[in-house]
Amino acid sequence: MKNTQLHKENDWFVSWFDSPYYHVLYKNRDDSEAQQFMTRLTDYINLESGDTILDVACGKGRHATFLASLGFQVTGTDLSNNSIEFASQFENENLQFLTHDMRKPMDLQYDAVFNLFTSFGYFDDEKDDLLALQSFRNNLKNNGIGIIDFLNIPYVEKQLIEHEVKSIDSIEFSIHRSMTKTHIIKNIAFSVDEVQHNYFEKVRSLQLLDFEALLEKSNLQIVELFGDYELNPYHANNSERLIMMVV
Ligand SMILES: C[S@@+](CC[C@H](N)C(=O)[O-])C[C@H]1O[C@@H](n2cnc3c(N)ncnc32)[C@H](O)[C@@H]1O
């Protein structure tokens, strides 16, 4: 099991997240907001210096690197080789990065396991989402705390901008968003050196009840909900995020 590859190279979440263009499109992410979120969250759940944190699907390590600077022992994992290669430049005695598929458990248990910024709901088969949650559960110590930070679907629905053009680093990204009963889909088209590129993001439109059912099947339960990165309470109709604290 450990060395078998679960993903296919043409899975959208493999090709898009590993492409340089993904990082161009999202280069203006708000890192100070991410850092304030991490400070508040680790305070709130009473993590102490030296406690261990697993950041599942860490991307280029923006949360993990900051968490290590706060004194935690942090491991960041992601399926994208390019992101992990980039993040590895920040490694130190408190911080390591590994290429790893979230559907497989790591060998260790951690005081906290985080899945941040909509890094869930990517798979076509629900069994894979369950594998990801079961691995998440297996990587938590007995008294460990899990955090899953997902979209709040009713909010996304209200705010959905169907078409948008973004010019970043001389690339013109034409973005079309749509919602089906089951998914939120973002089609991303652009050309570079006269070569046309087409990618998409496809995230399951999981709401609180869906998560409750998936978590129950994974032997996890929600103990607290937040609706944004300031840790305000969750309100289904108008919260920006669905942030679940699970044990
Ligand atoms: C929306 S990004 C968020 C990245 C990071 N958490 C952040 O906030 O910057 C989603 C991440 O999930 C990773 N990912 C997708 N499928 C994965 C899988 N099966 N196992 C591990 N990581 C995966 C992608 O490579 C990407 O880095």
Overall pLDDT metric = 96
Morphology: globular
Q: Please work out how many helical segments DSSP would assign.
A: 8
User: What class do helices, strands and sheet pairing give?
Assistant: alpha/beta
The set of bound ligands, ions and cofactors reads: S-adenosylmethionine
Number of domains: 2
What is the percentage of strand-forming residues? Answer: 25-35%
What is the CATH top level name of the largest domain? Alpha Beta
What distance separates the N and C termini?
Answer: 26 Å
Write out the strand line-up for the largest beta sheet, numbering strands in chain order: 3-2-1-4-5-11-10
Low-confidence stretches: none
Description:
It is a single chain. With 247 residues, the protein is an alpha/beta fold. The chain has 2 domains: 179 residues, Rossmann fold, CATH 3.40.50; 47 residues, no CATH class. The protein contains 8 helices and 11 strands. The strands form 2 sheets. The protein has a 7-stranded mixed β-sheet, with helices on both faces. β8 and β9 form a beta hairpin. The two termini are 26 Å apart. Bound molecules: S-adenosylmethionine. S-adenosylmethionine binds next to α4.
Write the layout of secondary structure elements.
Blueprint: H1 12-15, H2 20-25, H3 31-44, E1 52-56, H4 62-69, E2 73-78, H5 81-87, E3 95-99, E4 110-115, H6 126-138, E5 140-151, H7 153-159, E6 163-168, E7 171-179, E8 183-192, E9 195-204, H8 208-217, E10 222-226, E11 241-246
Parallel strand pairs: 1-2, 1-4, 2-3, 4-5
Antiparallel strand pairs: 5-11, 6-7, 7-8, 8-9, 10-11
